[in-house]
Amino acid sequence: MATSQAAQTALSFFQGKGWTPAQAAGIIGNLQAESGLNPQAFNGAGGGRGAAGIAQWRGSRQTDFQEFAGVPLSQSTYEQQLDFVNYELTQGKEKDAGARLKATTTAADAATVVDKYYERSEGTDLQKRINNANALTGGGPSVPNTQTPSDVAGEPMGATVKRPAILYPIPNRLHQYPSYIYGLSLHLLTEDEYNNMVNTQTYTPKRVLIASAGRYSPDTFPRSEFFDKDFYFENLNLLTTIAPNNTSRNTNAIETSFTIIEPYGFTLIERIIKAAKAIKSESYTMMPYLLQIDFFTIDDAGKIIGSVEELRKRIPIKLTKFDVKVSGKGAEYRIAASAYNHSAYDKNTVTTPANFEVVAGSVAEFFQSIEGTPADTVSFEGNQVPGERAITEQNNIGPNFKGTANTTYTRVKSYGTAINEWCEKLKSYGKVSENDVYRFEFDDVIGKSLFTHSDTVTPKRTRMQDARTPNDFVNIKRQAAGEQQSIYDPSKVIFQINYGTTIEKLLEYVIRNSDYVQNQLILPEDPDYDQKRKQMAEEPLNWFKIVPIIRLRKFDKIRGVFAREITYRITPYKIFNVRLDIAPQGVQLSPCKNYNYIYTGKNDDVFDFDINFNALYFNQVTAYRNSLAELNPTADSNAVAQQTQNFPNYGGGDASMEPNAIMPAILHPVVQNSTASATGGASDTKQVAAVDLADSIMTNTLGDMMVLKLKILGDPDFIKQDDIFYRTPLTSVTATPTKPTSDERLLPNNSSLVMDNGELYAQVLFRTPVDIDESTGLMEFDSNYKNSLFSGLYRVIQVTSNFQNGQFTQELELARLPRQAAFDYTELQNTDGTERTQRQESNPDSFPGKLGITQTPPIIPGLLQSGGTPQTTADASDSATNETPGQNQQAAQEANNVPPLLTQNAQDLRIVNETAPEETISDQTEPQAIAPNFTPISTRGNRVPGTAAVQ
Description:
This protein is an alpha+beta fold and about 950 residues long. The strands form seven sheets. Strands 3, 4, 5, 6, 7, 8, 9, 10, 20, 21, 24, 25, 28 and 29 form a 14-stranded mixed β-sheet that branches. A hairpin with a 4-residue loop joins strand 18 (about 540-555) and strand 19. Helix 2 crosses helix 7 and helix 5 (about 95-100) runs antiparallel to helix 6 (about 105-120). The longest helix has 15 residues, at about 20-35. The two termini are about 35 Å apart.
């Protein structure tokens, strides 16, 4: 068969199986690179039986082929081999690769996924595979698409944004290997090595202290000379808090603990001190260390192949605690640590040192850091700003500054400049030998957001003209001469920051009072309420995440710590399914993970769960937002007449949140939210609403209405790498990833889940039998209770990773999302196909297509991209139960007094039961093991060649 003809045959074949043209081209482009589409291609290199066929299958996959096709690979046809490729990607051992392939939309992306996850080549001829795929589709991008279609943070608020492509859940990538083991290692870094790692986001081991299984290589994994004896990791625990919560707020929290065993001695700390002194460290407790987690794959023969680079995890840490005891195992060292860059959240680091007053017009202007510029202290000659505390004249804001009594404020150019000036004065006064430096980096869409708009700017909050400023002096002179000149600057707003205010709370206060958040609010008080509600109906809430970066400066011998350059990077953060209807109402349709648990027949991850249901949970909302403005004079006296209005429709209109829903919306009106006054006041309607919104976002761990703890086999994707090792670039900064990624939800450099751009979501499905069918021994399902109402879409709050005794497990703490009609089984599980079709046609946004046990989430059909039809596996899974495949017809059958249809397995079992002899079995009465009219079939369900088909 000519190559071009073979390619066209394959293209038609794969498209006929449901793959899009681009996905089919990606498959064929790889097969061309592997074998030239020659079904008799053979490569004897690599040992074993060699590689054979169009996909160059090896080892157990050749055995799988023979079981599937019924003939050896060497005797098979081209069509049989194509069929096996499709089988592997959709039902066989490579279905995880198939799920990834389904998520691609271009030939280049498809070719990359097939190469990386199906063929698993060395990647040296990836471009050739991409070119082959592009040639079959008539062109297209020559490199994989690494842009994030859903990243619209840089778009103006309210702009029309194309819905992102529906993405499939990402399977646990460890499942694609026959087996694996993990390896742990602890490394010691110098300050220069740490800074280089932060700047380049790369690391080369130089000084390994302890490694699992005595791992050592003088060139690539060198041991420290002081650790020539073996120590052992007994366990490692990582607790990662991901979602915004009421403890770590808009930051991440990572707690690490591990146990080291020294079998015969008691020398670990002494050895660490010696290793630190050898690199001229001033303090072994302040030095940066690094935990490395490697995953070593094992082939079918039990041979360790090697560490998988894309699954390797690195966590720079700071040691915080040693607990030591001696037991029968030897000396046990229980060590606690934190992510090294998270020292930016230490109380002595993150606290405002004095009372400051900042005048700014935008978020970035408020926080900008101008090194070498003294704070702009201004005297008002004893005059007070109306309604505010006095401003004192100070020549500096150094350690002798007298304004920490919470009665006076020092006006400064910006908050960042004031803190840096404070730190420099500490050095000049001899309080420290090296000072810290603070920086703030904002994505443009946040940093350029303004505070000022016509309905909130009042003389009280606006800066007055200052005669010592040239432009202001001119305006004041013109006014004195009788010209119409305002003594106020409406482009600036005054902020007063109290001593002791933490930086992360200040960031939240400033950002939520800027246009970045307030332009997204949907308030009934607004005249354009209806129009804005329609604009925001499908948009996510654009919130923010604070990501710290630490670079080490010289060692401060007075404090006994490293001086640091601390950068707070603030990035956009997407949140779907918000609880309150005052924010964008977009819902998540693409969970990153999918878990099928009890009686689904699809579980390969979950082995325990615990559900906490809090019926007392409620959402707090301010009842009369406008009424709060009466407490403060307004610029517009006519607005007073509107301040007594209140609007009742705060509850949303989603049927999944009605009083009898599994998660009803319960609202608790309050006169004033205490958070508003605690963080500097909120007087206008948008500021009050922003406080309510922030409170609803900060999930209370174990205090949400429905929290699910899911214990799963370990998934490396959940081990956080952005923030602590890799950084996702700001949208305003052009950065080229070192490696392409086929999925926007994975880090380009490491392929861990991106956790700092938006919340993570997982779909969970429970099936609930009601009894056992005694005639078959199979579980019996009632259509009224087939799928548990606890099934649905969950937000990932925190992940606990545990490495112990050679096992890698995780516990996910998940909170069930509100407003999830596309995943809610309350309305959907009890309807047959006809009724569902009618309801879907009348209300397509609320009732998606058939729900069942899926590798992919149930998706609203209208949102699917071309060729993106999700693979429904309900048919396959139902074959293990006593109900009709893919359709729940029990209610309809009972209504017509017709017995429910049974699967083939159930029918066979029932025949055996009905024909079983009632008398005692003896040698004379024992039935034949195989009925005469049965023909043996292969384990794949395909008939053995040369035999008649099973009737």
